[in-house]
Amino acid sequence: MTSTLEQAPPTTPDRRTRVARFLADNGALVGLVVLCVALFIATPDFLTGRNLLNIGIQVSTVAVLAFGVTFVIVAGGIDLSVGSVAALSSMVSGWFFASAGLPGWLALLAGLLTGLLTGVVNGLASAYGRLPSFIATLAMLSVARGLTLVISDGRPIPTSPQVSFLGSDVGPVPVPVIVLVLAALVASFVLNRTVVGRSMYAVGGNPEAARLSGLPVQRILVTVFALSGLFAALAGLLLAGRLDSAQPQAAVGYELDAIAAVVIGGASLAGGVGRISGTVIGALVLVVIRNGLNLLNVTSFWQQVVIGLVIAIAVGFDVLRRRTRTG
Fold it and tell me: Residue 292: which region, alpha, beta or left (left: phi > 0; alpha: psi -120 to 50)?
């Protein structure tokens, strides 16, 4: 006598669950499209060529800064120092050119190296010093901003022609937009196509499991923060190129915009989840909101309220995403 076990048909998620998952995975893109349509209806100046170029220039600094933060958040950390590191890097580059007489290209490299070194210090403090990344980078935020003011004595410093070129145009295309595209390609390649990038997801998802599987967790964390510092330096040089000078108060508060762009773009503050393409979309959402509110003559005070609400909604989507994936 033979018996057969009847297999229950595989359950398929209902429509409500599918919609929830779609919005959780693509909420930022859907929100960006809706936002652009609404602003197009509200003001005819939004989709003009000049305004779109302006959006591209503005988003370049935020997005490049956020690329480095993406690495850190994917690895399960946080970097609050990127705004100050951006300012310090541009100031060091300007000082080496204007005061030390270094050639322009070497001064530019000095600025990038400054960001890289500050990132390494953050990584060492977090990985080997056992400091929470929040505390380590909060300390670097203050140190880097203080050093920026010491070097500049509170005054702007001229930048080299090479840094100023980063704020210029190549034909009709702004150089910051070109740098944004190249930086996005490099960051995406590192995160998705390299061993280090895949290791970031493993460390952020479960650092203890990553350690037991043989991954050098501490070295990966140092690399993550070093990359964050390097991208912060590049963002600082882009900002200095736009301003045609290194400003001691440059990029104040930009670290919050960078973190917000990463979270809005779908990364999880719990670690292990994040995409460079999502970060670009998140940065676009922030910049488009500010641009649209400016076109609508909304005061900067209310703009801060709106940005705060957007961040809260993005974190809510993060919670929803984790529930739908585990539920």
Answer: alpha
Q: How far apart are CA 116 and CA 107, in angstroms?
A: 14
Whole-angstrom CA distances from 254 to 84, 117, 202, 206 are 8, 20, 28, 29
The average pLDDT across 186-198 equals 95
Residue 165 is assigned to a structural domain of this protein: yes
157-158 and 245-246: which strand pairing? antiparallel
CATH code for the domain of 286: 1.10.3470
The C-alpha atoms of residue 318 and residue 104 are separated, in whole angstroms, by 44
Contact 262, 282 (CB under 8 A): yes
Q: Is 2 left (phi over 0), alpha (psi -120 to 50) or beta?
A: beta
pLDDT digits (tens, 9 = 90+) for 76-95: 999 999 999 999 999 999 99
Total count of domains within the chain: 1
- Strand boundaries in the chain, DSSP class E: 157-158, 169-170, 173-174, 245-246
Q: Residue 20: pLDDT band by 50, 70, 90 thresholds?
A: low
- Hey, what are 270's tokens? 């719990």
Q: Structural domain of residue 302, as residue ranges? A: 46-320
Would 14 be classed as within a structural domain? no
| pTM of the entire predicted model | 0.90
CB atoms near residue 103 (< 10 Å)? 12
3-state secondary structure of 236: helix
Asked, for residue 30, whether it belongs to a domain, the answer is no
- Give domain status of residue 35, yes or no: no
Q: Give the model's confidence band at 170: pLDDT under 50 very low, under 70 low, under 90 confident, else very high.
A: very high
What are the CA-CA distances from residue 49 to residues 34, 54, 172, 294 (Å)?
19, 9, 10, 17
Between these two residues, 29 and 17, which has the higher pLDDT value? 29
Smallest CA-to-CA distance from 149 within 248, 245, 232, 236 is with 248
